[in-house]
Amino acid sequence: MPARKTSSERTAQQLLIQELQRLHAEAGLSYRELAAETNYDASYLNRVVNGKSNASPEVMGSLDRIYGTGSLLVGLWELTKSAGVLGYFQKFAAIAAQAASRADYHASLVPGIYQTAGYARELLSTRPWRTAEEVETFVEDRLRRQEPLSGDAPILARVVLDEAVLLRALGDKGAWAEQVNHLIECAQRPNITLQVLPLGSGSHYHVGGGVSLVWLPKGKCVGYVEGNSSGQMVDDPSEVELMRLGYDQIRDRSLSPDESLRMLRKLQVDGGLCGES
What we know:
six-stranded mixed sheet, DUF5753, DNA binding, 2 domains, 277 residues, Lambda_DNA-bd_dom_sf, 12 helices
């Protein structure tokens, strides 16, 4: 049986945030000045320092250089890299936190950035030998990564849900109702376009898995493909273009946003889900 992880990972995350905040305060630099020194976006650096976005070893290395702290922050980041987000997802999560816009699709589940706590908790609990404490750490991180979708300056986002996702309810009916209500609320936000891909739409390039595309402020696009228990970041321009064209296939075969919202509302009523959006 694999060894179980301990709560020391969460402690390391808290220590990293404390050190980032202490060093930032002592340096006396504004986030705009810090951005000029590191070539990272000021708002992204603000979220990293305050523990609201995932970082990367490259970001930590830049801050170590500016603060003159050797490899302190990189070392702390290494201690936290397995907490809250899977190792193979780390780099993409750090890049996605800087995105100006994004597009997501999944064939069998609600993409993480649109999951409620209850939905994420049930999904994450299916992995053998994962403790309840570890599940909560993952849930907290997943919810934190959703912050760019809301707030004063939310990013533009598109999500396509395969109809199969809506037919696979959770075991916890209350959590499933909450998830459907959340999707209805997201579909009505001005910065989010939500569509449903009907089961009868035929095969497409991304059939069977999940895909995310994020566009950075300067226009670069990075992709991520996800399977059941693994994933891969894609930044080769030709491969990213294939992913984008495949996503266009999905989008073009999907119901319109209004039709998709009506489907969600029908699911809410026919499924006997409680609450109104």
